[in-house]
From TrEMBL, chains A, B:
<feature type="transmembrane region" description="Helical">
    <location>
        <begin position="99"/>
        <end position="119"/>
    </location>
</feature>
<keyword id="KW-0813">Transport</keyword>
<keyword id="KW-0812">Transmembrane</keyword>
<dbReference type="GO" id="GO:0016020">
    <property type="term" value="C:membrane"/>
</dbReference>
<feature type="transmembrane region" description="Helical">
    <location>
        <begin position="42"/>
        <end position="61"/>
    </location>
</feature>
<feature type="transmembrane region" description="Helical">
    <location>
        <begin position="67"/>
        <end position="87"/>
    </location>
</feature>
<feature type="transmembrane region" description="Helical">
    <location>
        <begin position="151"/>
        <end position="170"/>
    </location>
</feature>
<feature type="transmembrane region" description="Helical">
    <location>
        <begin position="185"/>
        <end position="207"/>
    </location>
</feature>
<dbReference type="InterPro" id="IPR020966">
    <property type="entry name" value="ALMT"/>
</dbReference>
<protein>
    <submittedName>
        <fullName>Putative aluminum-activated malate transporter</fullName>
    </submittedName>
</protein>
<dbReference type="GO" id="GO:0034220">
    <property type="term" value="P:monoatomic ion transmembrane transport"/>
</dbReference>
<dbReference type="Pfam" id="PF11744">
    <property type="entry name" value="ALMT"/>
</dbReference>
<dbReference type="GO" id="GO:0015743">
    <property type="term" value="P:malate transport"/>
</dbReference>
<keyword id="KW-0407">Ion channel</keyword>
<keyword id="KW-0406">Ion transport</keyword>
<keyword id="KW-0472">Membrane</keyword>
<feature type="transmembrane region" description="Helical">
    <location>
        <begin position="125"/>
        <end position="144"/>
    </location>
</feature>
Amino acid sequence: MASSNNDHDQVKSAGLFERLWGKIVKFGLMLKKLGQDDPRRIVHSLKVALAVTLVSMLFYFEPLYDGFGLAAMWAILTVVIVFEFTVGATIGRGLNRMMATLVAAALGIGAHRLATLSGKQGEPILIALFVFVEAGIVTFFRFIPQMKARYDFGLLVFNLTFCLISVSGYRDDEVIRMGFERTNTIIIGSCTAVAVCVFIRPVWIGVELHNQIATNMEKLANFLEGFGDEYFSVSENSQNRDKSSSLQGYKSVLTSKSSEDTMANLARWEPGHGRFRFRHPWKQYLKVGTLTRQCAFKIEALNNYLTSETQTPQDVKSIIQGPSVVISSECGKALKELATSMRKMTKSPSKDPHIAKSKDAAEELKTVIRSSLCKHQDDSLDIIKDGAVALLLFEIITCTEKISEAAHKLASQAHFKDVKPRVTPVQENSGNDGPHHVITIEG
Amino acid sequence: MASSNNDHDQVKSAGLFERLWGKIVKFGLMLKKLGQDDPRRIVHSLKVALAVTLVSMLFYFEPLYDGFGLAAMWAILTVVIVFEFTVGATIGRGLNRMMATLVAAALGIGAHRLATLSGKQGEPILIALFVFVEAGIVTFFRFIPQMKARYDFGLLVFNLTFCLISVSGYRDDEVIRMGFERTNTIIIGSCTAVAVCVFIRPVWIGVELHNQIATNMEKLANFLEGFGDEYFSVSENSQNRDKSSSLQGYKSVLTSKSSEDTMANLARWEPGHGRFRFRHPWKQYLKVGTLTRQCAFKIEALNNYLTSETQTPQDVKSIIQGPSVVISSECGKALKELATSMRKMTKSPSKDPHIAKSKDAAEELKTVIRSSLCKHQDDSLDIIKDGAVALLLFEIITCTEKISEAAHKLASQAHFKDVKPRVTPVQENSGNDGPHHVITIEG
């Protein structure tokens, strides 16, 4: 009995060890996947490590340390706090921290001076009053939406520095030296963070936003290109839900608003880089994003009919099949081309042939509905469902057209490149500028 | 000419002054509105000011200051950084900061000790190596989604403290005292912030989430209750867009996902309070929220028909009017009652009479569609539009039912109160417990 108990314990502890080991392996695999999914994460971690190590040199080298002393720790603190994944976020935090520290340190020193005028008795009371009033006002300012969007961190740092300087001044008479030290070390820390972030494999949040908007269009395009085949080939009792799962990528577009807003806010901090200028039209990106999301709402409604358990009979579906497939796939192609030219930062031709084709198909579909849909002998409810799919497709054309207009406006505001079609020089025209006619489409 | 120029300048400067004054007035009014919209903002600002002033006492009183010295500044820093609007956010940050500082300080001291073993030459190299490795690993950990959701701030503080302690140790031999000071002052700061946040007019983020979910249901209910009248009374060329603007409140529900996720994450930090226990089923709130949002997507589609410029002729609309109005308003009532009982934290009766009524109306509507819709002599396209509205109403019934089920599950998981209907004592039954039958519905 005792031996069996012992065995049992051994098995138990072996099981415990194995489970623990399993968890560690799982954690390791998860970390590996995180790194593989986006190797820039590893680069970012190394960049932060580098920046912190650089700044900690202030402690190791005698001449540097003599200048700052223990205040050098503010530089380390600043690097850790300011360094973010993207350039926009890092510059935003860095500028906020530097400006806020500068202004708050000056005001803090002023408050300290003012308080000392009132003698040793009144000084702590006056300082406490200043701190109370300043903290209350600045905290309230953080509720102002425009402030919150861009200067929230700055207000926090302002609050912090003002309190720190004015209160420490009561004990440390060298309050001005302290204000300077804090400001200088914070500037060193912020600049180190920003420099490492910008000059070593930078991740521009503007580019991220640019790509996300294009990716979202592609997600819608994938659904629309696949919808026709899926919907009209689905028989009444097939496992259509599984089959259509490859089309469900558009779902993430439904809830992308807040991430796009944040990105646009941070992108405004970024200097010009590559073909993104300083005043790139980020607001127009948000407009394209909003229209894309509205289109995603229509697709969500369309997807309902695709994944519904009670499918319309095939013979009712077939009434609208021809033009519907054309509309869906042409809108998909239009969106895909818009996304492609956005990625390449080129202007796409303003007259989109795909939208024109889908409009023609829509006219055809309207005729079909008027002429034959209601005359069919099937269940009226099925006919209505069929018609509802058609109506949604009409709406998707409108949406696609709106997206296309907004994307064109964006292309011109952002000075995307013109793409001239490849023209082979024709003999008759080759008088003056013949050879120049050979223009290849730039990638 | 000169005089006219002078006049012009005067007018200009007066204009400048007036414009400046106008801006100041506008800013003041905006601040006033911010305070009036949510007076808790003013209370919060005063609370932060109070907490900072309390902690700054560490500097003013001799005995307190003798214990901490300038390290007391960490307490001020901590209060400003930790104090957030809601209890959940404040406790989350406070715990993160305290735990991370404790662990990182211990490890930092250990790293310093280990480095000193290698002599004065090797020490800075070893410390730099430790800092590099630690910063890299911890920064990478911040990418783990589960970590990011709850412990992001803790990882930041860990990074900060470890670097600070191990690096400063190179210059300041009293590294252990420094570690203790930092830990102690940060604990004082965190506890002050949490105490002021919890004990003076606390804002519980759990309650905020609870109310937002109920408000969102009410927004949908408002649309549905108003839809019937609006849609069927809108004639083809009235300014229907303006009229329906009062129904557009549901739009905010479409994009509420990220704010709900954040709130649920922070609510898990909150201790039990009032009728919210520590392990309140926050995840179930998110489920109700998701279903509400899905219903909002249907309503968005319905709203399209309401605000469309090309309205279906009145005589086509009138075919489906009767049952449609019933479905819409009964679903609206069902949602409104769910929202009300959620606000009161009571269990609503599991058999919802409004959903039953709307289902009956749906059967009626199906019969109408089958029997007469397609036999109408109007434009088939209008008939299809009419039918599409009916289909959306059917989907809204399904959605409402799902929301109702999820809300009931929430009510039982969260131990909402039972509401027994008011029963007047009947003579025949009044033997043993007659008087107890008089139960009033608790508010």
